[in-house]
Amino acid sequence: MKPSLLRGLSTGALLLALLPLSSSTTSAPTEKPFSYYLAPLQGPKPDPAVLAQFGLYSNATLQKLIDTKGQQMNKVSDRPGDYGFTIVDSPVINAFATPDGHVYFTRGIMAYFNNEAQFAGVLGHELGHITARHGQKQQTRSTISSILLGVGSVVSPGLVGRFAQPLSQVVGLGLLKYGRDAENEADVLGVKYSTKIGYDAANMADFFQTLQRTEAQSGAGGIPTFLSTHPNSADRYTRVKGLAAQAKQQTGSAKLAVNRDSYLRSIEGLPFGEDPRQGFVEGGVFYHPDLKFRFPVPSGWKTQNSPEQFQMAEPNGKALIALLPAPGNSLDAAAEALVTQLKLQSAQASRTTINGFPAVAIQADQVGQDQSGQQGVTARTLTYLIQDGQSIFALIGLTSPSAFGTYSGTFSSVAQGFSRLTDASKLNRQPEKIRIKTVKTATTLGAALAANGIPTSRREDMAILNGMQLTTKLPAGTLFKVVGK
User: Fold this and answer.
1) What DSSP element (H or E) covers 18?
2) Do the bridges between strand 102-106 and strand 95-98 make them parallel or antiparallel, or are there none, so unpaired?
3) Which stretch is the leader sequence (predicted)?
């Protein structure tokens, strides 16, 4: 959760923040009028919903790079348009294009590129999805939750689906999982566009190998990556290498750019991994250094943090708790908005104080049709609205009516544990960052990492980050990446 997103948010934003929790529901895809598919693509400005979910990464150098190269490709593409290009503040290794004509790269994927040619190849690939109109041909409900929010997948579909009913009118962000045909076509276009603006597209194939290594390293339960929405194939590396060789031959140029050193220098200081300033879990407690609060996480519960919310789910998906910014400038206004917008009934509210913070506790039901079509109470909630100065936070506990007695105590204990963060070691926690080092004398990557204090347990990860093996020989003067404070 980012401080900047916790002030002045409307009730609509509060509701939107709950939408990712319905990732495993069986609701119908969002319908679009036929004219939507015929309309010109226009996406020069980033979607506010995307920025609310991921956060904007403010880095003038890297934003200029993606803008400049994106517009160069736009001019030589098969369908020039009013497209936009944005870097978002997510540690996940991903890039995606929305059907409105906007390309997003995460700071996570920027960390794993090792030259401009790799960057340009993936940029061309994403632009290819737009110019080939893959998103408009395959428009479905948003899959943003499957990309970042692992918690949503373990929550009971019936439980969260009913709670999210008021959100059914929200348009999906259109992050799609493409099939092999669409991926192959985007690869062809990525090679074509990046070669046309002067880059050696063979490096795009090398990056796909890096992605495969990160996927293997994280395991089946790891953080979803680019490959979650861009399925790989065994022959992809060979096929892209062949396409790049053909494209290079057609240009007649023996000097297509790679630009390794200039790219590496451009990502010096790039945050790597989760940013603890936006909140982190440690020892069964969620800490937020910038907002200066803490509260307990139930033992064994799964957690996921994003710029707009922090959520926790019982391991079997029987209950969840979400921390969200609440609307309104008073507890009364926030309570009224919450009950109205979430269509809660039989609400019982009581004032209380939690570790010095004014608060309101609200128990309520949501009434609707269950999965069998019967009318009745489909979800029961216990929400604590907690005021900290000008900010109001909502800790929303949600479960089925039959399980409420089991989990209401957990909902209460989490809220009662909300307190001021004063521990200096937590308040001063800083993110790790990419640091660019130079090899003094010829050596191997493994030896260079060891000489820079990288522990043995992290060296394979650093080899993947560099797109090398630990045994790769580095001539004197070679730049390479390490990670540190």
Assistant:
1) helix 11-18
2) antiparallel
3) 1-28
Give the Cα separation of 8 and 205 in Å (integer).
44
The residues, ordered by sequence, that sit 6+ positions from 318 with a Cβ below 8 Å of its Cβ are 156, 159, 399, 400, 403, 406, 407
Do residue 264 and residue 282 come from a single domain? no
On whether the CB atoms of residues 84 and 44 are closer than 8 A, the answer is yes
Residue range of the domain that includes 472:
432-484
Q: Sort strands 84-88 and 102-106 into parallel, antiparallel or unpaired.
A: parallel
Burial 134-170 (b: 16+ CB within 10 A, else e): bbbebbebbbbbbbbbbbbebbbbbbbbbbbbebeeb
Tens digit of each residue's pLDDT (9 = 90 or more) over 283-326: 999 999 999 999 999 999 999 887 778 999 998 889 999 998 99
The residues that bridge with 321 in the sheet, in sequence order, are 312, 397
Report the interhelical angle of 180-196 vs 236-251 (nearest 10°).
Answer: 30
Candidates 310, 325, 287; CA nearest to 417 is 287
Within a domain: 378: yes
Together in a domain, 264 and 287: no
Lowest mean pLDDT among 250-254, 395-399, 405-409: 250-254
pLDDT at 382 over 50: yes
**What angle, 0 to 180 degrees and rounded to 10, lies between the N-to-C axes of helices 202-218 and 236-251?**
160
Helix (H, G, I), strand (E, B) or coil at 100: coil
- Identify which of 294, 387, 381 has the alpha carbon closest to the alpha carbon of residue 334: 387
> Phi and psi (nearest 5°) for 26?
-105, 25
Strand order in the sheet with 419-420: 280-282, 285-288, 293-296, 419-420
Answer yes or no: are the C-beta atoms of 127 and 74 closer than 8 Å.
Answer: yes
What average pLDDT does this structure show over 57-80?
96
The total of structural domains in the chain comes to 3
Domain endpoint, select from 243, 272, 301: 272
Residues 43, 127 within the same domain: yes
In the numeric block, the tokens 């030589």 are attached to 76
Q: Is the pTM of this model over 0.85?
A: no
**2 with 279: CB under 8 angstroms?**
no
Which residue do the tokens 């979400």 mark? 322
List, for residues 323-353, the tens digit of each pLDDT value.
989 988 899 999 999 888 778 889 999 999 9
